[in-house]
Write a structure and sequence with these properties.
Helix content is 26%, strand content 20%. By secondary structure, the chain is of the alpha+beta class. It starts with a helix and ends in a 13-residue tail after the last strand.
């Protein structure tokens, strides 16, 4: 499909800047299937070509400080410290704690994204990088589309672009008072009500932001957009050492 016809299709399907964003619905697991554009990222249908946005990341044994997470996600560690009320950039974060990360979200071709980079190691594949290292904040389809290496021929020691999924508010969301979107990483046991409550959001607006209804299913390790009227608050008190 040519770029012109793809753009026309996007405008017709999503109604320009008024439409919300479709939920990825586990389609990121089929790495070699690039037939569904939603695996590439969230559509550029907002009022602005760039904006302050937020993503979430759960601390691991490898990435367990604001400095480590900032390095991985190419985000400002000092802002991570301030937003999450950590004591310092290098304070240890307990494993599996949800960390809110502010990022600059920008229009790249047809999709919003925040760019990180990753150096290929011996065991890496696009699937491992996107779903394990980056916890589903990107997809193997998006990585394959934006890097020169094919799925079976990653070059150890080379750097690859990692387009992280983010989005800017649409005109409809802005008119409703929403200033930011946060790409929340769904985990086991999550439901619409719990996610909305976690961020002090309205469940109806959360469903609309992802073009879902209350009967739909959401899956772990997929991004889920939550519209916010103000900067996200601390999810829970996190004591660091």
């Amino acid at each position: 499909m040519s770029k012109f016809f793809f753009l026309v299709a996007v405008v017709l399907q999503w109604g320009g800047s008024h439409a919300q964003q479709p939920y990825i619905n586990n389609k990121q697991l089929a790495c070699e299937d690039q037939s569904d554009n939603i695996t590439q990222g969230y559509y550029c249908n907002g009022l602005n070509k760039s904006c302050l946005s937020y993503i979430t990341f759960r601390s691991t044994t490898t990435y367990n400080s604001a400095a480590d997470i900032g390095y991985l996600l190419k985000a400002d560690a000092t802002l991570i410290v301030s937003l999450n009320n950590f004591s310092s950039e290098f304070a240890t974060i307990p494993r599996d704690k949800l960390v809110i990360v502010p990022v600059n979200c920008s229009w790249a071709d047809y999709y919003y994204q925040h760019n990180a980079s990753h150096t290929i190691s011996e065991s890496d594949t696009y699937f491992i990088i996107s779903n394990d290292t980056y916890q589903g904040l990107t997809t193997c389809q998006a990585m394959m589309a934006q890097n020169p290496y094919n799925y079976r021929n990653l070059s150890v020691g080379s750097d690859v672009l990692v387009p992280l999924r983010c989005a800017c508010p649409t005109s409809r969301q802005s008119a409703a008072g929403f200033k930011y979107l946060i790409s929340y990483m769904v985990t086991w046991g999550d439901n619409f009500s719990a996610i909305a409550t976690k961020f002090g959001a309205d469940e109806k607006s959360v469903l609309e932001a992802n073009e879902l209804n209350a009967n739909n299913t959401i899956f772990p390790f997929t991004t889920f957009l939550v519209p916010l009227t103000a900067e996200p608050k601390i999810i829970e008190s996190m004591q660091t050492s």
